[in-house]
Amino acid sequence: MSLRVAILISGGGSNMVSLVDSMTVDHPARPVLVISNTADAGGLAKAEARGVATAVVDHRPHKGDRQAFETELNAVLEAARPDIICHAGFMRILTAHYVDHWQGKMLNIHPSLLPKYPGLNTHARALDAGDTIAGCTVHEVTTELDAGPMLGQAKVPVMDGDTPDTLAARVLAMEHQLYPAVLRRFAIGDRSLLNLP
Ligand code: GRF
After folding, report:
1. 36 C-alpha vs ligand 1 centroid, how far in Å?
2. Which residue, 1, 14, 146, 147, is the most exposed by fewest CB within 10 angstroms?
3. How far is the C-alpha of 78 from the C-alpha of 133, rounded, in Å?
4. What is the pLDDT of residues 159-186, one digit of tens each?
């Protein structure tokens, strides 16, 4: 019986696509639901084109009430009975009301070499710091933002003349390799740190 994977998105969903496309043949997991917090997320159509069920849990009606949003999100997730939840460009900060509910089942990908640059604007911060190496991290989700146990990291060189956009594109290409590789290991209970390349 395959493990059931739900994927949370907020935008284009390129990481979601990489994850969905990786769960085939002898992979121990299968995607069962893609949830977005916005109805206009481009990733929703990509999921539907791949035959994956989708749902929208709009955060805006719950403005200022994170717990109400997370209660609705938890209910939609419960119905899907996920064994693993992959946050893939999901741009909402989540509280203990959600994290405690799914403890041990949640992964996230962050576009920096944590613990450097948690939060936003990671590529601009790496360039401003003069870093010569950048990358991305897959980690377990805890109540502390971008700080859960690390499961994988992928490094890329910073090139002369890089802008935040050119660096983001180079890192994103590695995200698409790292996240599926970590998910497959996580699905068989391997929590050891994977380093790419
Ligand atoms: C990725 O860079 C990811 O690391 C960050 O948000 C971006 C989402 O990209 N969390 P996509 O929606 O997966 O294309």
Report:
1. 13
2. 1
3. 40
4. 999 999 999 999 999 999 999 999 999 9
